[in-house]
Prior knowledge:
By secondary structure, the chain is of the alpha+beta class. The chain is built from nine helices and five strands. The protein has helices at 5-16, 20-25, 27-48, 114-126, 129-135, 138-144, 167-170, 183-187, 191-213, and strands at 54-59, 79-85, 93-98, 103-109, 175-181.
Amino acid sequence: MIFDNKSLVFLQDLKENNNRDWFADNKARFQEAQTNAKELYNAIREALEKNDEIDKFKLYRIYRDVRFSKDKTPYQPHFAGSFSRKGAHLRGGYYLRIRPNESFLAGGFWEPNKEDLFRIRKEFEIDDLEIRNILSEKKFVKYFGGKLEGDELKTAPKGFDKEHPAIDLIRKKGFIAIRKFTNEEVLSNDFLTEIEKSYNALRPFFDYMSDVLTTNLNGESIL
């Protein structure tokens, strides 16, 4: 399963002609590209389900909600989709965006709720060795550079020591691993394989965070 060059060209053309008249004139191209994208995302789901349990898949609409945005362009010049893991015991989610020169996949915890964020921070405060071991694993370094992305505070959150050895992790507000792709990589015959390898490299991180978020500080289940 490959992402077709015609689909990528359509997205580039849409980026350069982001208006309703052009889109209407090129509706057939959009529908063909969307079908190609759906086939790819369905193939990704099948690959994920070999080693994980997936609850929901969402392919995001190409139409933008511009009501509260300064940017009034009506369309997203990309395809994007997310996969949610199944059940309260499996945390984390997978994401993929295909956009000319700006494609990437990601996985993790974008905006944890207040309770989850506090629990994660407390775990790092008590012991950050396990998460650092996961981030330094060979495959995680290969695909994600051995680091987590996400917004973070400039200093320690309330109740935490700004001099704590794990403050670099504690002050984060999100915990996301990101891998970027060139256009050539997106169009490669190996793209689906590379996506699968990348998502598999996230599994130890997801398993660790799932364990943290389903237990209390004593390691007792809260489910």
